[in-house]
From TrEMBL:
Superkingdom of the organism of origin: Bacteria
Natural source organism: Planktothrix tepida PCC 9214
Protein name listed in UniProt: UspA domain-containing protein
InterPro entries xref list: Rossmann-like_a/b/a_fold, Universal_stress_UspA, UspA
Matches recorded under SUPFAM superfamilies: Adenine nucleotide alpha hydrolases-like
């Protein structure tokens, strides 16, 4: 099959390198283009009650959280831009996107909006019990994607 629009869904896990390489090779073979997608995981700051904590401490805490968030986002932006540049250097048209929210739903939404022909992603290898209790991003995508899905099994 000749896939022209390849969505590669990655996180910053060790396995993502193999997932990206698989998508890159698929794009090379089919002269396709890549959409590199990352689901942001933003930590929400703790909530405080104004009666138990001084306002000065709250302001300081939120400034710290904001600075940390900005640093984390810059690291992710640089990482995604590096992957995009790597694909472009290999002669593959590429772009990246990130969103915050439910990973499985976001991947399917991006695939639909971008008109992807295939989604390339990894899986964590949870046991059947853990997958049932916690859910699985790859399970959700396989069952709800608007296109083909290639799951890259980690080692």
């Amino acid at each position: 099959m000749n896939y022209q629009r390849i969505l590669v869904a990655i996180d910053q896990s060790v396995q993502s390198k193999m997932v990206f390489e698989t998508a890159l090779e698929l794009a090379r073979k089919s002269s396709g283009q890549l959409m590199i997608f990352h689901r942001l995981s933003l930590d929400e700051p703790e909530s405080y009650t104004y009666t138990s904590v001084q306002v000065e401490k709250i302001v300081h805490h939120y400034k710290f959280v904001q600075e940390k968030l900005e640093q984390d986002l810059e690291k992710v932006r640089l990482w995604l831009t590096g992957l995009e540049n790597r694909a472009i250097e290999a002669g593959i048209q590429a772009e990246w996107d990130w969103k915050e929210g439910n990973a499985g739903r976001l991947i399917c939404q991006v695939a639909k909006n971008w008109n992807a022909d295939i989604i390339v992603m990894g899986r964590r290898g949870k046991s059947a019990v853990m997958e049932t209790l916690l859910g699985s991003v790859s399970y959700h995508v396989v069952h709800h994607a608007p296109c083909a899905v290639l799951i890259v099994q980690g080692k």
